[in-house]
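Exercise 7.
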Amino acid sequence: MDDRNDRNEQEEVYSQRVKAGKRTYFFDVKATRAQDYYLTITESRRRTNADESVSYEKHKIFLYKEDFLKFVDALQDAVDYVREELLTPEEVPNSTGPARTLRSTKNKIAKQAVRT
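Solution. The predicted structure, written as tokens, is:
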């Protein structure tokens, strides 16, 4: 059995779909036979071809459990940078919640420490 078939036979533990305009993102948690868990993040875009047929362009990331925290931290840092440094207040979606509030407070304190 090749690696491609092996991946298709993995047990899907959790799945969430996020529709975002012309794109759809899929977050799938899968388990290996040894009960190791990993996440696949798939971006799917519907394309209409010149002959009017429809196809889907997909891009996939495999994220392994030992990298989850590093990935989430880097993603949050990048999102925070865009929100705080590149967008105007009107462009920033209104997001509240404990994680976001803590992260913002931590970043503001760090920025103030650098300035002084």
